[in-house]
């Protein structure tokens, strides 16, 4: 039981920090929150890029949920001071963020990187704050696996 709590702590801390930053922030039209779903495929050992909008958000958090679990853990976040890659990321491959974007790149992709990636993005616009959630299901294929020639 203690192990599950320890694994959930990094995401909870990240979420609590985001909530503290957003406290007092009013989203004028909660119906205007965007929810975007996508799928991506990558070849083990290769690279894959996961998008999080077409412009750089003011704040973003990338989370990862592995197969057969409901635990979303932060892997990268940026609170306006540059991206911070978390330790969990080493079990997925080599993570980095494309400069001046919030797109997540996973190089040397591991089979264990398969799962759901979530980018929570907050945009500070002239019309007020906008919030978007990007849900990307990543499948990682092995060389020679059906469909791997098209990745």
TrEMBL record:
InterPro entries reported in the protein's UniProt record: Ig-like_dom_sf (IPR036179), Ig-like_fold (IPR013783), Ig_sub (IPR003599)
Leader peptide range in chain numbering: 1-24
Domain Immunoglobulin: 37-141
Positions of transmembrane segments: none
Keyword line: Signal
Protein name listed in UniProt: Immunoglobulin domain-containing protein
Origin species: Aldrovandia affinis
